[in-house]
Amino acid sequence: MDTVDLARLQFALTAGAHFLFVALTLGLATLVAVIQTRATISRNPVHLGMTRFWGQLYVINYAMGIITGLVMEFQLGMAWSGLTEFAGNAFGSALALETMVAFFIESTFLGLWIFGWDKLNRWAHLATIWIVTLTAYASAFWILVANGFLQNPVGYRFDGNSLHITDFGAMVANPAAMVALGHVLGGAMMVGGFFMAGVSGYHLLKRTADLDFFRKSLRVGVGVALPATMVTATFGGLGFATLQPGKLAAWTGDAERAAEVQAEMTALHGPGYYLPPEEWVRSSALAMLILFAIMFLLSGLNFLLMLVRPVVHRFRAWHVLLVAAIPLPFLAMIAGWIFREVGRQPWAVHGLLTTRDAMSPISEGMMRFSLAAFAAVFAVLVVINYWLLARAARRGPDGVALGVRPAEKPEPVPAF
After folding, report:
1. Has residue 18 got a pLDDT over 50?
2. What percent helix, strand, coil does the chain show, rounded to 5?
3. Which spans in 270-360 are helix H?
4. CA distances from 305 to 3, 196, 215, 337 (A)
5. Confidence class for position 187, pLDDT limits 50, 70, 90
6. pTM over 0.70
């Protein structure tokens, strides 16, 4: 690998890992908000317990997602200074809005939600989680506006050195961003649904005492996963209309169209190779489609099975299947992300700035050291997040600390 390939691999590892945290965060935030709405209206203690249990898993994943996001931003500035110098004035506005309007508000109200149990009015407390959820959506929106500009730059002018936005509305309404937003939000709900169903299946398999708790949680997860899978697939199909010509040619295997794209790009930008790696584009798209087909069939089966209460409580093979299916939407999201990002190569900003020109002037040795360091950090963070989530999920409602009143906390055992 040369230096550019090493830098691309580093960004793929860091951004891909962060993307998985984001997907689960978006999905769980929505589900927790819906469950808390039910609990607030009905005052049902089971739904209140569900809010606290799933909310604690959400908070764990959110915290680790923030850490991975900060590390990712650091390596982006370190390895890709050419991109920020050339296009930072354009897509940077969307990133700034994501930080100021979305992230700051989201984190502030999340703090109010975490520490506001039994301190805020129940309706005010419910409002905080909905603000957290809506600002999480806003954060995803601005991130995808920035990414959509890199995929399909619109509404800009070039002053000879860098890009500047001339039509902010065109950048916001970019089809490459709007279709991707629906696809990602649907995928996040799919991740959240499969996760909730899988954890519930684990506890039903273990015959824990909280059968009603996890039966209700299972119904929520399964009930969300099926429509979320269909919505994700629909927006994914619409997304093919926004693909770059080179990516579409690579996906369909159209050699004639690929040759035309190469000739057009050569005429515009001079000698070079302007087609994405066909094997990566096709294999990632194929993996994504196969996983979606499997999840659609599983979601339909799960939906039918959950309607029969004896099956929900006693069908152990189904419980095992629910647990085993937890990784499927994560794998599909990564495959889709690879298809989207690798497919625009060799461009960092499609048709305007190549990936090679977007790189910082870093030596190969320094890049190898940086790749090893970031890979190690992210591996540790992923393992820690998995361990924390798995431990909290296995403990069940009795191990929840979120929203517990001081009187509910177990008395410490005196040491002798």
Report:
1. yes
2. 80, 5, 15
3. 278-305, 309-314, 316-324, 327-342, 355-358
4. 52, 16, 12, 32
5. very high
6. yes
Give the rounded percent of residues in the chain with a pLDDT score beyond 90.
65
- Residue 56 pLDDT > 60, yes or no? yes
| Domain ranges, ordered by start, for the chain | 3-244+277-403
Q: Is the peptide bond before 397 cis (omega within 30 degrees of 0)?
A: no
**CA distances to 8, 18, 233, 369 from 72, in Å:** 13, 8, 28, 16
From its phi and psi, is residue 412 left (phi > 0), alpha (psi between -120 and 50) or beta?
beta
To 10 degrees, the CA torsion angle through 19, 170, 352, 276? 50
Average pLDDT of the residues in 134-145: 93
Give the pLDDT confidence score for residue 416 in this predicted structure.
37
User: What is the CA 281 to chain-centroid distance, rounded?
Assistant: 20
What is the arithmetic mean of pLDDT over 369-385?
88
CA pair distance 350, 347, nearest whole angstrom: 5
Distance CA 79, CA 74 (A): 9
At CB < 8 A and 24+ separation, what contacts does 249-258 make? 249/275, 250/275, 250/276, 250/277, 250/278, 250/281, 250/282, 250/343, 251/281, 251/282, 251/285, 251/339, 251/343, 253/278, 253/282
